[in-house]
Design brief:
- By secondary structure, the protein is mostly helical.
- The chain is built from 5 helices and 4 strands, in the order ββαααββαα.
- A two-stranded antiparallel sheet has the order 1-2.
- The chain is globular and about 50 Å long.
Amino acid sequence: MNQDARYPGLTLRVLARQFPAMGPGKAALIEAIDKSGSISAAARDMEMSYRRAWQLVEAINTSFAEPLIVTATGGKRGGGAVVSEFGREVVRRYRAMESKASHAIAAEITEFSSLLKPARRASKRR
């Protein structure tokens, strides 16, 4: 998965009992589910397998005091997934921490990036 362009050079992971409770991928998945109302649609949008998306949803819901994503099984009315208000608040707080951390180290990231090799251009073949 590509890192979010809003926060170059920064990956924030919040740990719970030594396991990532929230990171950029989980936050993006929750946002995609909130937008689409579906785990399968969110997985497709993120180029992720449906199985992996379900595993992440289960891990997310297990890590927090309340479910972040509430699911409904398929049937006549079809299934779906809804991000709870608690889930939206978790993502809002995570994105705020991510932004604060990114801004706090912006100058250092720029300086550090100058030590890296420049990106290689794709050569044009004829």
